[in-house]
């Protein structure tokens, strides 16, 4: 290993219960657990991304760090090229010094935020990168872009480290969570994790003079075709159990990936009527803060992780 984990991180990775899967796997071994991700720093891309919500990307973009693997295995994942646990990770392992060089070369262009994408299974690795940046004098705003399948204790450990939480809230229906993400307990787990984020940050989203988020939470919800009831329940749950004032990013960008071929109900994009119904519920619930993505945005959000920047044509 050429990177300095603390003894606490080594203990966590030796007997891994970092996420709610609770595998108790040894991430230093050849059997690293459900996420199939070793203890190494396995990162598929470090790049500027301009397609996030306006306060996240700002005018210049955010430096996003895409970890490989994931603790959820959503069959419709748009990042399936890097998240699928069947793929080998070895080619993506990078030394910390290389990662820090890549990040700082982006930050030196004037970008002042770093986003960790799908970091739930790589919390010690994420903390190591943050610590490394601080040690060389960089203190960008840190954005935790998570699927929300996180343990409350893990989120608690991020207090004072993470500036902006950007969690998904995918399901309130356990059957969908089981069938599509292999995580029946997702509704309960995500709700508890987001409540802890809310305890830390409250509903307000604090912006700098350029309109970029400095601190707060934005909850993302991707509407799935044919599953409007689930979306309505997610919004109702947020409004009643967390806060109707919290910022919501309602997303229409679902498109069928090759992985959904055995789920014909998911093999299409959203209809205007479906999306209108969900957006209307936000209004009914008095959820006025946030963003409603335009329908027909699917083509803008198809990443290709074979490219140097997955979000830009080379
Ligand atoms: S992070 Fe990976 S190994 Fe650890 S508990 Fe979660 S799925 Fe299992």
Structure at a glance:
Helix content is 31%, strand content 15%. The mean pLDDT is 91. The chain has helices at 7-14, 54-57, 80-83, 96-107, 123-135, 152-156, 174-181, 186-201, 228-242, 272-284, and strands at 43-49, 62-67, 113-117, 141-146, 164-167, 206-207, 213-222, 247-251, 290-292.
Q: What secondary-structure arrangement, pairings included, does this model have?
A:
Layout: H1 7-14, E1 43-49, H2 54-57, E2 62-67, H3 80-83, H4 96-107, E3 113-117, H5 123-135, E4 141-146, H6 152-156, E5 164-167, H7 174-181, H8 186-201, E6 206-207, E7 213-222, H9 228-242, E8 247-251, H10 272-284, E9 290-292
Parallel strand pairs: 2-3, 3-4, 4-5, 5-7, 7-8, 8-9
Antiparallel strand pairs: 1-2, 6-7
Helix pairs in contact: 4-5, 8-9, 9-10
Bound molecules: iron/sulfur cluster (SF4).
Iron/sulfur cluster binds near residues 16, 17 and 19.
Overall description:
This protein has 314 residues and is of the alpha/beta class. It has a single domain (7-301), classed as Aldolase class I (TIM Barrel), CATH 3.20.20. The protein contains ten helices and nine strands. Bound molecules: iron/sulfur cluster (SF4). Iron/sulfur cluster (SF4) binds at residues 16-19, 21-23, 25, 32-35, 71, 121.
